[in-house]
Amino acid sequence: MGRFIKRISKTSGLVPGELVHVGERKIDKVKISVLDYDDKNFQEKETTNIEEIFPFKDTPTVSWININGLHELEIIEKIGNNFDMHPLTLEDIVNTSQRPKYEDFDKYIFVVLKMLMFDEGKKAIISEQVSLIFGSNFVISFQEREGDVFDPIRERIRNAKGRIRRMGADYLAYSLLDAVVDNYFSILEKLGDKIEGLEEELVTNPMPQTLQAIHNLKRDTIFLRKAVWPLREVASSLERGESKLIKKSTSIFLRDLYDHTIQAIDTIETFRDMVSGILDIYMSSVSNRMNEIMKVLTIFAAIFIPLTFMAGIYGMNFEFMPELKWKYGYFVLLGLMAVVGFGLLFHFRRKKWI
Amino acid sequence: MGRFIKRISKTSGLVPGELVHVGERKIDKVKISVLDYDDKNFQEKETTNIEEIFPFKDTPTVSWININGLHELEIIEKIGNNFDMHPLTLEDIVNTSQRPKYEDFDKYIFVVLKMLMFDEGKKAIISEQVSLIFGSNFVISFQEREGDVFDPIRERIRNAKGRIRRMGADYLAYSLLDAVVDNYFSILEKLGDKIEGLEEELVTNPMPQTLQAIHNLKRDTIFLRKAVWPLREVASSLERGESKLIKKSTSIFLRDLYDHTIQAIDTIETFRDMVSGILDIYMSSVSNRMNEIMKVLTIFAAIFIPLTFMAGIYGMNFEFMPELKWKYGYFVLLGLMAVVGFGLLFHFRRKKWI
Amino acid sequence: MGRFIKRISKTSGLVPGELVHVGERKIDKVKISVLDYDDKNFQEKETTNIEEIFPFKDTPTVSWININGLHELEIIEKIGNNFDMHPLTLEDIVNTSQRPKYEDFDKYIFVVLKMLMFDEGKKAIISEQVSLIFGSNFVISFQEREGDVFDPIRERIRNAKGRIRRMGADYLAYSLLDAVVDNYFSILEKLGDKIEGLEEELVTNPMPQTLQAIHNLKRDTIFLRKAVWPLREVASSLERGESKLIKKSTSIFLRDLYDHTIQAIDTIETFRDMVSGILDIYMSSVSNRMNEIMKVLTIFAAIFIPLTFMAGIYGMNFEFMPELKWKYGYFVLLGLMAVVGFGLLFHFRRKKWI
Amino acid sequence: MGRFIKRISKTSGLVPGELVHVGERKIDKVKISVLDYDDKNFQEKETTNIEEIFPFKDTPTVSWININGLHELEIIEKIGNNFDMHPLTLEDIVNTSQRPKYEDFDKYIFVVLKMLMFDEGKKAIISEQVSLIFGSNFVISFQEREGDVFDPIRERIRNAKGRIRRMGADYLAYSLLDAVVDNYFSILEKLGDKIEGLEEELVTNPMPQTLQAIHNLKRDTIFLRKAVWPLREVASSLERGESKLIKKSTSIFLRDLYDHTIQAIDTIETFRDMVSGILDIYMSSVSNRMNEIMKVLTIFAAIFIPLTFMAGIYGMNFEFMPELKWKYGYFVLLGLMAVVGFGLLFHFRRKKWI
Amino acid sequence: MGRFIKRISKTSGLVPGELVHVGERKIDKVKISVLDYDDKNFQEKETTNIEEIFPFKDTPTVSWININGLHELEIIEKIGNNFDMHPLTLEDIVNTSQRPKYEDFDKYIFVVLKMLMFDEGKKAIISEQVSLIFGSNFVISFQEREGDVFDPIRERIRNAKGRIRRMGADYLAYSLLDAVVDNYFSILEKLGDKIEGLEEELVTNPMPQTLQAIHNLKRDTIFLRKAVWPLREVASSLERGESKLIKKSTSIFLRDLYDHTIQAIDTIETFRDMVSGILDIYMSSVSNRMNEIMKVLTIFAAIFIPLTFMAGIYGMNFEFMPELKWKYGYFVLLGLMAVVGFGLLFHFRRKKWI
Fold it and tell me: For chain A, which terminus, N or C, has the lower number of CB atoms within 10 Å?
């Protein structure tokens, strides 16, 4: 459940725009890296001192500043002051319980979204908040911890592979968003595989544990929905490209981003339908098995209870019971019992119970 | 249920705009307090005589008048007359069963919303109606009882902390709304904790009482939905900022308020999904347990009923039953019974019932 | 069910606009009353002769003509001709299976809505169709029977209480609509009380009869939904006030009417959610009780069937059964039975079945 | 199921606009009838030769051409050529699996809708496709078979009853649509009666057959929904009256048609809710009855199994069983059995099982 | 499940627009065919060398280039370069997990949709991605494998049947889309037949296997929904015809395409409703059968357990049991047993259990 709601109430009663880090501290020391490039030049720097990155701001080249770790509020504040950010933007960056959102502050565009990972330990999908701020010649990305899905983009910038070095900050921002959304599909695949496995188990051998697995899947789809749905609006806002910070040539890529987002949402909805279908089938098959169990009980009881009664009759100690004296009484009774027993057996077979 | 619908029918058949206090009387004596401030000046006053606060109206400074207790209609009427309020506004203030709403009366904006609390005694979420009226240089807040979430704001005004003393009445109104909405998240967290607890109980040891807990959670989410959903429209109306009473600089904060409202609604919807998922799982696990019980019964019955029948046979008193005379008849039968018993046991084990 | 669909098919195959009274005849003789007033003058008249009311039409004062009983089509037609109504309007008035609706015929506005009552006999909510027609200086209201929620308005007109005598026909029409909608809340309260009662019963002592009560509640909410939902559109059309027959000063009251309608719909939706939640809980608690019953059966059967089998063994009549000869055989067996019995008892207690 | 999807795939792979009759052939010989009229003149003709009706096209009077039977494609084609219809219109007319739709081809308006009937034989609702084409002075109606709901309209035209002879082709088209929609209500009534019957059965004596009846009702509502929902859009398109073929005076009648359509849809939705409510109640009452059955079983088993065990004890043949020798042993045991039996009986009564 | 999500994550971390074939390789060698035609001329060519088709690009005739097989990325790239396609278009073509979509690139329109087939082997509906690109005088279609629904169109072009040779590339594109959508109906029919079969089975003889069949149907409808729903938007975009590449005369055909798409979606929704209805009925009938089984068990147990107890009484070995000495004791007891047995039988019959 900690996945679904974080200790956001910590911020209650504070001045709006006052910085409070909401969320777990997932890294020891804040790490800052800069990639500064244009078509011809490229420079890379890693540091822990925020002051060193400010000079990049005034160069005409595109600067991608990545910050890993959100708990040192002083650093966030310095960036905020240096890049002229609104206090509410800074508040949103450090509050990791944000809903994915898009805000246009004229001088910069602010995008919040969720990077998803599959935590092999907890066997559950977890999320990390990524905030992007981009202006005319810079992109600043904020992450909660180290490790992300941006390495291929770094490589492309370093090696001038593809069109990225020839494009502006808006294309870089798009690339980062695209990398996050593309990564959703690998999560969706994992979920899809689980659903597939469950469906087979359902058919071959449904177990009480299956129920727990279904419940976990349901929670995962709810979690995904919450993380991905609002992105639709974000992508749509970006695609409409009403900001002058987004060039026309990037717009077509943003449309593609929007399409991918819709596709991810579509798949999540399909998964929801499938999981709820699986639960229905599970419940029905539990009832079916109950019927099977009851049939076994009923057949045993219905056959042997009357027979036992018959045996009970002749186990009575009345002095005058003529049958007991008959020579073949016992065998006649055994025969009668066989008739009754097989008659009932035949009856149940005709009812298709056996 | 009293939580869901109040004795609103009391107002039926009255002149529209006629004041009737709908709701419980939650305070003995109406308490009035004023905070009057601008960038440089600050004045605070507490009183029970409404006349004393009217002079504040004409000062250019921002005046925040807070009224605790709605049952003294005379006071409400006097405020209404003095601040030129529409009769329907006054009617809405004292009718505490209002739906959250936003109304623009040109000279003032009227906002109704619900402040939520967790009542530790009743173990349920309860709500209190807060009405806000703000004009160019005043904010009047009406509450049903003492005790609210506004103390941090009072502190900030007194200590000139943050930007509040430099901003106008619209920013003060925003701050109050923001405090109420921020408080929702602490309620949501409590609910989230309960859901989490229930989910674990569901897995480790589901009980009939769990059902009652699920039902209570469901009611709480329904209650929250009813209180928070309409706020979406309110926040959206405020954010669009079509009134000239709302300055552009406040608008950006109202957008943040809107985002928070959406986030609260999102979380409530997620909770709804989770609670309904929990109920499904609960029902399935009840059926699973039924299967377990039935299996135990069936195994006992299916094994011992035939054996008892066999014993019954040789308990009969027929004069001519050859087996009874055999020396080892008894032991042969015991052996046969063991074969039958273990045979059935083996059969059920192969069926994975044991 | 007769509540949900009336014999509307009677009208099939008729000329559109041809009058046919659809619905039960709920009054013997049509009763007509007129209240004619302005700021200074007031006149009241009750009659059964429709001709007597036509003179009121041409006075500049506001005339409220109320007709109780719709089965005398001749009267309806005369009013229609005299007030220049469209044939379809007349058809709609006498067809009491109308959906609430708003129609603007330039010269007059036509509103149909449902007045709700709780029929103590049938223990069910019933509805009566009210049609309102208002022009620049008249309001005509059509009702199916005597007895309505308009008496307080009549009193206010007679006693010149409130602003009603100073306002026009549009305000009178609003007042009538407001009275009908306000009355919804008393119905909703009754329903709310029933739901509350049911919820407590559910917890303390669920019974098969509870199911019938849940079903009745569900039907009541469906019935309410059908009667009240379309009113949203009606109130919204009135509020937008595009007709010149609605003055600006009345518009603000119509906004209030709209708010009340939304609030009623909101409450109905909440009730729907609650009733469906109650049904879920009921079904789960039936399953829980089944588990309880099965546990009792299983415990009795699982303990005594093996013991009976043991007794059966020593009830056999084999000639050679060494145990029967032992002096303490009987007591040893009794002891063994106690061990088995208490062992099973202990086993079930450890399983938390007892 | 044949009701829900027809052999439409027959048309796959054909030239768009190529005519193929999709649906059953429901009449032997195509029958054509014409009613030609204006205010003063009236002429009626029945024929099987399509050429004879073409002269009516050029008269200024309104001509209503009705074609019963769609399988003679030659006739349809001739009409198409003579009245200048688009090939796609003709394709739609003969493909009886059309969804209700409205198309404006400037020179004519094309409307497809479903006429509903209750087939007493199959005990199910069936539908027949009706296509209407109307231009400035003609209406052509296509039906699959003989027998329709238009006879009252024919009578009104013949007898010059009502306003129909004074109005144009658009009013005639409206009248036909209105007759079809009015007829829906008689179908809805039949369905309503069935639901009412089922609800009573549910309360007094639920049976396994009830389930089949519920399923049939559900299918009927699904079928109705599919046939009637799209009509909403059709009626709304007609009402907006953007075509110059629709006169303003007819527009008000089309608004009424729209209202009726919405009312029919509303009722269908209410029925859906009710049927799904009935199913829920049915399932709960099946579970309730299961509980009753289990209680009976458990009471019998729990009382007599221990008693039988006690009798079994004293049926054993141990040589040394002191109780057997006691004079009153038998009666003491009988007494003990009575105590145990009534004790259990009392226990179950206290549990409210009896 | 592989049906629902493909290995799309393969593309993660690549340059946007970089080509990667996502999906199974369903054909050995890419096959290219061209049909080049206008009103008077016609030319057809089949090749595996992509260069040979480029000359067709510059002719004024309409050229339909069909490519079967997407795994040879070089070919796709060459076409892309030659026809001036955007890199994202190429990426979408080879990524067969696309959602149906419409994109207008000014110089060409790009449409992705799903061709559905029923795989007789897997007994499931499968899909193949079809991408269409059309400009002023060319249409390029990309398919994953050989075998499609376009043969009738090829025939019409070859034989100059219908209007296709007289129309432009937009009409050809429409024809291809229409063929795909028409084919949906044959799939829907197959599904409809299955549903019909299942409904009958449900009534006559419900089996555990029925559950698997219901589950498969549910998955099929989910799969269809995912494939067909997004087409609604595609068809609507095409119909609005905002591109100058679509002529007005084709627009009317595209409206028809839109209608067919809606009809397919409607039918899918109806199927969804029906399948979910079938599941409900199945679950209820499983419960009903459980009741039947329980009744059999209860009747047997309730009748014979008391009788066995009575026999047990007189099987006891007490020395003093007066009844045992009575001459008619045995027959009296038999009579008593008959009374008890038939009494219970009569009781259960009165309860309608038998």
Answer: C
